[in-house]
Design goal:
Elements (H helix, E strand, L loop, with lengths): L1 E5 L5 H4 E5 L10 E10 L2 H8 L10 E2 L5 E7 L11 E4 L8 E5 L3 E3 L6 H4 L5 H10 L9 E4 L5 H12 L3 E6 L4 H7 L4 E4 L4 H9 L6 E4 L4 H9 L5 E4 L12 H6 L3 E4 L2 H5 L4 H16 L7 E5 L4 H9 L6 E4 L4
Parallel strand pairs: 9-10, 9-12, 10-11, 12-13, 13-14, 15-16
Antiparallel strand pairs: 1-2, 1-4, 3-5, 3-7, 3-16, 5-6, 6-8
Helix pairs in contact: 4-5, 7-8
């Protein structure tokens, strides 16, 4: 049984390898075996591999924050799941042909939805939804501004905001992304730059912009904060710039702009099993009905792990890179 393993921290394609391990045995009481169909390579995974993430696992470590697959065997006492069910794994060892996990660590998902889209269900759609809902009481007609708007989270924010009647200001670095994001429902798409706040107001006038969502940090945080309405909130969830978040005293003291952070893993750890099931059932239904979608640029087998990691490391992509361990 093949799986991906991190041997040491460093450049992803140099420190990760595919391992040929023993076949899984029968699941124990309360466990299930899953044949993994697909899982994405997320920025957080690359940071973990480089040793730059919030925590460092003991090495060697198996990898794969996300994954979806089909149950192939069910242990004693598992009554809510059956062989043939498609499930999303909540564990972090999903870059493998098969995994054996507790039945409480999976969420049943629809069989009729796109398996590649379902494989990205755990992290980015939930991140987008929580950041839209937890920090500001958004009303129809309000505006949200975000950077890295062409990212998977950015695309989900555009789509989820649209279902709520909330409008989006989307900041990108490449001109060719403008039309692409407008096609999926972006209201305004702007190129990043020092005069961002001025250009935002020329687009929306004095409309209410109470929320900014920041994946970049550094000066990216500052530019978003400068575009907010008085008393607005910046939610940071990434550090693409590699720099600390910035806000001026003028914004904080006189404009009342606040900065907070969001980390999905911490929130999921506080949720009860029934809450998790409800959360992902709602998001999976949005994928099934076509409300949520993010492009996939390429998919790789496990024996192409190095190529997949090199591809995922590229900054100017137009979609996710997936691993499909069983082909």
């Amino acid at each position: 049984m093949k799986y991906a393993e991190l041997t040491r921290f460093g450049i992803p394609w140099e420190v990760c390898r595919m391992v040929e391990g023993p076949a899984l045995g029968s699941p124990g009481p309360g466990e299930v075996n899953i044949k993994v169909e697909a899982g994405p390579i997320n920025p957080a995974e690359l940071l973990l591999i480089e040793g730059k993430y919030a925590s460092r696992p003991p090495l060697p470590a198996r990898l794969g924050i996300e994954g979806v697959g089909t149950i192939t065997a069910v242990g004693e006492g598992v009554n809510e799941l059956a062989m043939g069910d498609r499930v999303m794994s909540l564990g972090r060892t999903n870059w493998a042909e098969e995994i054996q996990v507790s039945s409480g660590a999976v969420v049943k998902v629809p069989k009729d939805a796109d398996v590649q889209q379902l494989s990205m269900l755990k992290v980015n759609p939930a991140t987008a939804m929580f950041m839209l809902e937890r920090y500001v009481n958004l009303k129809p007609g309000d505006w949200v501004i975000q950077n890295a708007a062409n990212s998977a989270v950015g695309r989900y924010i555009i789509q989820l905001a649209k279902t709520k009647g909330v409008k989006t200001l989307n900041v990108v670095r490449r001109t060719e992304l403008v039309g692409e994001l407008r096609k999926i429902g972006a209201d305004v798409v702007l190129l990043d730059g020092d005069d961002l706040a001025k250009r935002v107001r020329s687009e929306v006038g004095d409309a209410n912009i109470p929320l900014a969502i920041d994946a970049v940090a550094g000066e990216g945080t500052l530019r978003l904060g400068g575009a907010l309405s008085e008393g607005g909130t910046v939610v940071n969830y990434g550090l693409l710039s590699g720099k600390p978040c910035q806000l001026t005293p003028e914004l904080v003291v006189f404009q009342g702009i606040t900065l907070t952070g969001f980390w999905l893993a911490k929130l999921l750890g506080t949720m009860k099993p029934d809450e998790l099931q409800k959360l992902y059932a709602e998001l999976a239904s949005q994928i099934t009905n076509g409300n949520l979608y993010t492009p996939v640029e390429s998919a790789y087998r496990l024996d192409q792990l190095s190529d997949a990691l090199k591809h995922a490391y590229q900054t100017e992509r137009n979609g996710k890179v997936l691993l499909m361990p069983n082909g």
